[in-house]
Amino acid sequence: MNYQAEKELALKIVKQAAKLCQRVQQTDGGKAVKKADTSPVTVADFGAQAILCQGLMEAFPNDPVIGEEDATLLQKSGLEGVRQQIIKQVQQSIPTATPENVIDWINWGNGQVAQRYWTLDPIDGTKGFIRGDQYAVALALVEAGEVKLGVLACPAFPREDGSKGLIFLAIRGQGAIEMPLEGGTPEVMKVDPSSKFEQLYRIESVESVHSDRRVQTAIDRRLGLTYTAKQMDSLAKYGAIAKGEAHFYTRVPLPQFEGKKENIWDHAAGVIIVEEAGGMVTDLEGKPLDFSLGTKLSNNHGVLATNGVIHSQLLAAIQQEKSSF
Ligand code: AMP
Ligand code: MG
Questions:
Q1: Scanning 88, 91, 196, 319, which has the fewest C-beta atoms within 10 Å of its C-beta?
Q2: Which of 266, 295, 297 to mutate to test the pocket of ligand 1 (most atoms within 8 A of CB)?
């Protein structure tokens, strides 16, 4: 399998979805409503999911799609205006879309994990999107529990020439590439294989409750890190490691969220991008992330992504830190 048809479709719809997000950000600044778990969601999250699902449904009607959003929330009274905005935004991208189409497309993302499936996060890092910081449109193809293709559109990712917006793409066995969001020459991505901890950068979430900073600081001290961690919302962190702009990323559940498992769509596309750029991704115990079990990484504990070279040293430091608590 060389996944050429999947790659072309994935790139096309991720770019279209990213465009919708940028348009929403420019027009209404990413006003948010709250989901049942109190996390924010915007017109752009729903609109981007509709676009991604429509493309997948048309091109690969037999593949289940598991997306973060669900249109049930939009049935709530008081949200008619939000629903109208979503429909309007999707119609700007797909002029023939009816209101019923838009809701059906969003709900196409309610599929079940199968031998082969797609998972997507229309906006990972919604809090970053609302703040005007980093966010990512994420799409991945999984077969037999392993990610085979991953695409991330990061409209706010800084480029060397001072402009913004990158797409990261990886296919199993074919390497990882980056290209400007608006199109241009793809460049091969490679991790930075440095291993001297005093010269390495850790990267972490902006949101302090998404990983245990106390444990992370203790690990940094144990390894002799000298630089302050870089901070970035969303799956864009995996892109930063794959590009060599950071060297590792740990996601350590806080004690109050100990039983909480990570969502498949929050990691799938990033995992393959780091791996195909020469890095490594496991959980905090060194186990590969298992994408075959449902919407959660229910058989894994936390996440560790590195440039590969330092992976075993980090796993050892994490185990030592765990035993010292
Ligand atoms: P990040 O920008 O890396 O912090 O990741 C954003 C993602 O974190 C969101 O898509 C959420 O699904 C996820 N998230 C929300 N709450 C938590 C939590 N308590 N622990 C870990 N991840 C979380
Ligand atoms: Mg997310």
A1: 196
A2: 266
Which run of H or of E encompasses 313? helix 311-323
Question: Which pLDDT band holds residue 128 (cuts at 50, 70, 90)?
Answer: very high
* Residue 217 designated active-site: no
Structure tokens at 218: 């203790």
Model confidence at 19, pLDDT cuts 50, 70, 90, reads very high
To the nearest 10°, report the CA torsion of 235, 172, 47, 36.
-50
Pocket of ligand 1 (CB under 6 A): 124-125, 205, 207, 209-210, 233-234, 257, 260, 263, 266
Annotation marks residue 306 as catalytic: no
DSSP 253-291: --GGGTTPPPBGGGTHHHHHHHHHTT-EEE-TTSPPP-T
Cβ(180)–Cβ(168) below 8 Å: no
Q: DSSP character for 207? A: S
